[in-house]
Amino acid sequence: MLRVISFISISLTLGMTFFSQADDSVVSSFSVSQKVDEKRRIAGLWHDVNDSNFANGHLIVSQFGDEIFTAHYLEFKGSPFVEHGSGFRDKDTITINVQVTQQIPGWTTKGVHTLTLSDDGQYLIGEYFSGGEKGPLKFKKAGK
Questions:
Q1: Which pTM value belongs to this model?
Q2: Beta bridge partners of 140
């Protein structure tokens, strides 16, 4: 349990470091001085809204240029799960290679998530690919 708390603390600290430096420049073709359309912002906190088997799901996304970094915590039918990842952004789609640090028995320990920002900017929707399996992912933007 102490390892999970330590990991989450480190992930949040790193996430806040990336948030403070994140520029979302990839979403705008204008010069750096132009304001980014906040609806197209991917960096931030997202809540897992995949289905009722998932609870307390939180995804932190940070962006530095076109690089993406994530930390993800969820509980699946009461069992905790923790993973982190890195990848890239291409327009409104992010592709993340994830590594599981607290596994749910029977689940794999690495995979790829591909998520696309919805037209209204309120959801990241896509799929995970892991161990030859795939399935849906859906996150709702939390806060601003």
A1: 0.73
A2: 47, 123
